[in-house]
Task: structure prediction
Amino acid sequence: MTNQSITRIQRISKRFRMLFTALIFFIPLADLLFWISFNHLHDEFLTGLPIIPSQDPTPLFLALGFLVSLIPVTVAIYGMLTLSRLFKFYEYGIVFAHENVRLIRKLGYVIIAWVVANLFFTPLISAVITHGNEGGLPTIAVSLSISDLSALVMGSIVVLISWVMDEGRKLQDEQAHTV
Result:
């Protein structure tokens, strides 16, 4: 790679690192603001929920909703933290180190964990939303979409790519130490 390419990669990586670092703080804040302002949101903002509430939310409902939403939020924060660390290495010009490969592997697992987190989130949030409905029993929704299956495949591919990168890195290290 030329010095100009490396400098450009470093500059862009710094911007991405700053973006992902900011998202570490923005994502939970946005989630908290969503639940605080839940009573004032229009239906189009609630389309991400598996069920639209049929009654006015109580403070307990809002607190439980926020706690349950922390399941996917925690995975997202961990993903942003991992991306921030990866782009910090790129910012310093470190591209094929063992730590980079490890972080790329973690990203693959984060994508898989995102799907698993949503498998727990959907039934829990639907139970919270419908708790106290007429009839006494909450409604439990379960969801597994083609995009979830695609994410599982993509996460697995990222893990595989990290494995291939690690093997290539090991071969390169062996060749560098062969006299």
Observations:
- DSSP finds four helices and no strands in the chain.
